[in-house]
Amino acid sequence: MKRARGISRRNALGTIGAMAAAGVALNGSGAIPNTSAQTSSHGAGPRAIALIGDRAHNADYIRVSLNRLFGELSIPIDYTTNFYDLSAAMLRPYQLFVAFRDNIDTAIDPERIGLPIGGPSWISEEQGKAVQDFVAAGNGFYSFHNNAFVSRSSNNYRDVQGGLALSHPALRPFKVRIVNSEHPITKGIQDFMVTDEQHYLIYDKDPKNILLHSENIDGLTFTTTYQDPRISANPGPPKNWGTTSVSGWAHEYGKGRVVFTAMGHTNHVMWHPEYLKLQKNAVRWLLKMS
């Protein structure tokens, strides 16, 4: 199958779904640049590049959410939906990589919306190493929501990201609790309620790096047969993971920094006042602005 690498300007002005299939890059204003992920010059300040959109997360709502976040921080951000282009060359012009998509290669069969999370993956270990090297060199990596599923498919990506998504139930209310209120990212942030996908995750590194927990205060638990690939490649017996999960972390990696936060299925969640403040703190911390 031939992998899409570009798109004409006329076609790009169609739907965002067509953009996602073609892998076009957008700048923060929503304009279509002339090149793939490296777009126009934004001066000497830090720049971000975001890989966004998948079969369950429309790229348009993500772009709208991130435009507000980075606009209020006055940091330019470019966008791409083309996961095939993730590489050292794509990341080189930037100081922050934002990832907001899962591990499924929808280009193989983009019409199968019900594709299982364990379906065919797009990421290679070479791409995972590109992210490793980018962060280790002193840059930032902000991983959102379902991006922890990518760690199912790349050991290198899991190593830098620091964790793994197990699965999640359907949308339901839960509380986001601040675990470490002294970290620059969470300082001054209060616990908050959201209605979102409560993602259940494993964090591999030092527990002191965990910033957030999600807790279903109605007592609803979650059971999945997913097995950590470090244990087995096959589904295990059903396991009940309880009402609470790790939901966010921050750690140093080489000379750079990594943040993961699990909330983000809708603009309503992304723009919750406490969560938006936390995201701003996270970007500043990742870029060593404070």
Q: Output the CATH class name of the domain at 9-166 and 249-286.
A: Alpha Beta
Outline, from the CA principal axes?
globular
Content of β-strand: 15-25%
Secondary structure class reads alpha/beta
- Fold-level CATH name of the domain at 9-166 and 249-286: Rossmann fold
Structural notes for this entry:
There is one protein chain. The protein is of the alpha/beta class and 290 residues long. It has a domain at 9-166 and 249-286: 3-Layer(aba) Sandwich (Rossmann fold), CATH 3.40.50. The protein is 23% helix and 24% strand. The chain contains 8 helices and 14 strands. Strands 1-3-2-4-5-14-13-10-7-8 form a 10-stranded mixed beta sheet, sandwiched between helices. Helix 5 packs parallel to helix 6 (155-161). The longest helix is centred in the first third of the chain and has 14 residues, at 59-72. The protein is globular and about 50 Å long. Residues 1-25, 27-42 and 113-117 have low confidence and may be disordered.
